[in-house]
Design brief:
Elements (H helix, E strand, L loop, with lengths): L2 H17 L5 H38 L5 H10 L8 H11 L3 H14 L4 H14 L2 H11 L6 H17 L3 H14 L5 H8 L1
């Protein structure tokens, strides 16, 4: 939403940079005014962004981190090489900003065009999971499991399905999924520990 505004601001600044060296005193004064307006706008955006970040930080500091946070962190560590399409990066950006509705929309469009893009499907499933849409998330992870070769992605899927089963009070099934996650990738042991503590 800000992309267009910043694009326009950059265009205005580039025009000022071109005109400034060859301008007379009167024109330079006019360009100085335009520069001041751009500077003021920039300062206001930065201040608003910092206030937003502060509020967001306070919110996440006050909300207990669910067991999906570990899965979120693991997803962020996956190798993204070769996956840097504009849609993917935009969806991932929304996901990282906890804007799951927008992330889901981006990844849905992306997998319509690239149905075999498994990492986009994992992000789509995780978006649903983070929103608390457990049924949708579960169906996506269930669809993904037989298609995945990457052990980390497979373990993330098993872990997520285990977390969903915990939410559904089905601890036996959750434990089964957590065991599968551990056997697929032993570095994914934290959910098993969390289950023992509950």
């Amino acid at each position: 939403m800000f992309k267009h505004l910043f694009s326009t601001m950059n265009e205005v600044l580039e025009e000022i940079q071109k005109e400034y060296p060859n301008s007379d005193v009167e024109k330079k004064a006019e360009l100085d005014e335009q520069l001041q307006v751009l500077k003021t706008m920039s300062d206001e955006f930065i201040e608003a962004w910092l206030l937003f970040e502060e509020k967001l930080g306070k919110f996440y500091g006050a909300v207990p981190i669910s067991n999906t946070q570990t899965l979120h962190d693991e997803l962020m560590e996956l190798d993204m090489s070769g996956k840097q399409t504009e849609e993917f990066m935009r969806g991932q950006g929304y996901y990282k900003l906890y804007m799951y509705d927008q992330a889901i929309k981006e990844f849905e469009v992306l997998i319509q065009r690239q149905p075999d893009f498994l990492l986009a499907r994992v992000y789509l499933a995780m978006g649903h999971l983070r929103k608390g849409e457990f049924g949708d998330a579960y169906q996506h992870f269930k669809f993904l499991l037989p298609l995945m070769e990457n052990s980390k992605m497979k373990a993330i899927s098993y872990n997520a399905m285990g977390c969903i089963q915990v939410q559904n009070q089905n601890l036996e099934k959750a434990f089964e999924y957590f065991q599968k996650a551990y056997h697929t990738d032993p570095s994914c042991m934290e959910p098993l520990i969390n289950l023992d503590e509950s």
